[in-house]
Write a structure and sequence with these properties.
Length: 193
C-alpha cells in the first residue's frame, strides 16, 4: 500500500475525500494518504461543512498536507464536536491546528477541572443546546483563574463551580468564589485564613 515507488512523471498527486475515508486505517487509506508522494490532502464535504470528533480531527491534522478546504480553493467549515473529556484529550493537537478548526462544540454535560475549562476557552468552545458545564477544582485554582476566564465574553460559561476539597482561603479569594454564578462548596468547607 506504499506509494513510494510511484512515478508521478512531474505531476502532482492530490487526494480529496471525506474525513471517514481519510482516517480509515483498517483498509490502509490513512497510510496511503500519509505517504510522502501525496502532494495535498483535501477534505470533501457534501454541504461545505464537516463535523468530526476530536480524535478524528487529531488524525486528520497528522496527515502531512491536510487542508480542510477543497482543491479548487473554495472553503469548507470544519466543526469539532465531542465530549469535554475527548476535547481535553486532544487539546494539544486541536490548539496547534486551531486555524483549521471553524468551531469546537461540547456535546454532553460534563464536570471538568479548571485547567480543562481554560482549554475549552482557548479553543473558543461552545456548548450544544442543553449542555451544562461544571468546573470542579480546588478553591485556589478557581479563585486564581476564574476572574480572567470570565472576563469579556467567554465562549462557554459553567453553570456550576464546585470545590474538590475543603480549603483555607483569604477574604479576597472568598469574595471571588462567592461572586461566581452557581458556586457551591458542596460537602467541602471554606475557612477564612
Amino acid at each position: 500500500q506504499s506509494l513510494s515507488a510511484l512515478d508521478k512523471n512531474g505531476h502532482t498527486l492530490k487526494v480529496w475525500d471525506t474525513a471517514a475515508h481519510l482516517i480509515d486505517s483498517a483498509d490502509g487509506y490513512l497510510a496511503a494518504v500519509s505517504d510522502p508522494s501525496i502532494d495535498g490532502v483535501y477534505l470533501k464535504t457534501t454541504t461545505g461543512t464537516a463535523t468530526v470528533s476530536p480524535s478524528t480531527a487529531a488524525t486528520l491534522f497528522s496527515i502531512a498536507g491536510f487542508t480542510k478546504n477543497n482543491p479548487s480553493g473554495s472553503s469548507n467549515t470544519l466543526i469539532v464536536q465531542g465530549t469535554a473529556a475527548n476535547i481535553e484529550t486532544n487539546y494539544a493537537t486541536l490548539a496547534s491546528h486551531k486555524s483549521l478548526v471553524s468551531g469546537v462544540a461540547v456535546s454532553a454535560s460534563a464536570t471538568v477541572t479548571d485547567a480543562a475549562y481554560g482549554h475549552l476557552l482557548a479553543l473558543g468552545a461552545t456548548a450544544n443546546s442543553g449542555v451544562a458545564l461544571t468546573v470542579r477544582d480546588t478553591a485556589a485554582n478557581i479563585a486564581a483563574n476564574a476572574p480572567g476566564q470570565l472576563s469579556g465574553s467567554p465562549s462557554i460559561a459553567p453553570s456550576v463551580w464546585s470545590l474538590s476539597a475543603s480549603a483555607s482561603v483569604t477574604a479576597a479569594d472568598a469574595a471571588i468564589l462567592g461572586g461566581l454564578t452557581g458556586f457551591s462548596a458542596g460537602s467541602s468547607k471554606l475557612t477564612l485564613s
